[in-house]
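Quick one: co-fold with zinc ion.
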Amino acid sequence: MRSTSLKPGEIPKKSLWRGGPVDSYSFYCPSCRVDRKVPYRSRPGGFRQITQVTSTAAFFTLLTWPWLDWKGIVSFVPFWTIFEFYYRTRMRASLSCPHCGFDPFLYLVDVKKAREEIERHWKAKFAERGIPFPQKPAAGQDFGIGSEATESGSSSLTAEDPES
Ligand SMILES: [Zn+2]
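Sure, here it is.
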């Protein structure tokens, strides 16, 4: 359900991250400008995934046939729930930038938390090397995330087919 009649320069009301299903995400990290690619579909439900869960449910049905008969196929629902939970957890974990700790999803939900996450990332990196973490910059120059994300970040978030 994505609006396709956008005029040039118009910002879509719905975020790309929350829009319709997309095969993979490709974008530049708005914080450190590294080319990022998230190789997951925004929503699980590909033919292979459905087949896998269906065959698991079918196998379960065969195992429990003496007790449940064909009703065992209802196990598809809990199996799919487990699969989707696993899939979404894995995808969510892959969103965060490995270079700077910027989490685009968290940024859309809570900017303050996204900043804290970046700080936590760098504190851990500094601690790893045994270097004391520098003092916070003066107010107004807060890593420059807020201003850059609105200029280049949102416009470079593009959905892309895995084939291309
Ligand atoms: Zn980054």
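If it helps, Residues 147-164 have pLDDT under 50 and may be disordered.
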